[in-house]
Design a protein that fits this description.
This protein has 231 residues and is mainly beta. It folds into 2 domains: 45 residues, no CATH class; 169 residues, no CATH class. It contains 2 helices and 16 strands. The strands form 7 sheets. Strands 9-10-11 form a 3-stranded antiparallel beta sheet, covered by helices on one side. A 3-stranded antiparallel beta sheet has the order 14-15-16. A hairpin with a 6-residue loop joins strand 14 and strand 15.
Length: 231
């Protein structure tokens, strides 16, 4: 998302009969950068951020242009354990909030079968309604109705996904967060769906990608994975 702002610079630092137009930027670390400007010059601000992209899918699902917590499509964004609402630094079973450590079980709630839009949905929590974690069906539609091209032109490799109407999104191979370490960045991507796995209660369905494959798989719920939101 970009804005183009035309600045008619009014601030003049007079030196004798001469004047200078300057823009001085101080960043959060206190570093100062000074730019000389011509009066009436154009400054482009790249705001980044999330946009809803219509890929022309039969369901009408709109896919986010970047991951939850990312500013740009090729940013990894934040990593979430399945059903948790914020990111953290350690991803393992001992730190997983949706595990009954006293009884060594995963407590069952009907809500947990599909957490899209519920109190366990990090996309909704972070971005607000109507953003949600995609369902397994929505991921399946993305896989079967769009063309996928492995793309290494960005800061992180991943897939450019082109919808039936020609619109595109980029899905980075953002890896996964295990314990304190992020692994597989640039080679593989793992993204949560909102649906609990049907083969076990300690896994959930995922979208998994690499340069050799793409499809639906499973991951342990306590691992940290990115989320590509939908609405």
């Amino acid at each position: 998302m970009k804005r183009h702002i035309t600045l008619f610079v009014m601030l003049m630092l007079a030196i004798g009969l001469h004047a200078q137009n300057k823009m001085i930027i101080r960043d959060v670390d206190g570093n100062i950068t000074t730019y000389s400007l011509q009066q009436g010059g154009v400054i482009e601000f790249d705001e980044g951020g999330l946009e809803a992209v219509d890929l022309g899918l039969p369901s009408g699902t709109l896919w986010g242009s970047c991951n939850v917590g990312a500013l740009h499509p090729d940013d990894s964004g934040a990593y979430f354990a399945w059903g948790e609402l914020s990111d953290k630094t350690m991803y393992n079973l001992a730190q997983y909030k949706l595990y009954d450590h006293a009884h060594s079980t995963y407590p069952y709630e009907e809500t947990l079968e599909n957490i899209a839009g519920t109190g366990y949905d990090a996309a909704t929590s972070q971005l607000g309604q109507p953003w949600k974690i995609p369902t397994k069906a929505q991921v399946s539609e993305l896989l079967t109705k769009c063309s996928w091209t492995w793309d290494t032109s960005n800061s992180i490799a991943g897939y450019t996904v082109t919808g039936p109407n020609g619109n595109k999104i980029f899905i980075p191979a953002a890896g996964k967060h295990t314990n304190e370490q992020v692994n597989d960045v640039g080679t593989a991507g793992y993204f949560w769906t909102s649906v609990l796995a049907d083969r076990s209660d300690f896994e959930a369905f995922t979208l998994e990608i690499s340069n050799t494959k793409k499809g639906i798989d499973y991951e342990k719920r306590f691992l940290g994975l990115p989320i590509r939101p939908v609405k």
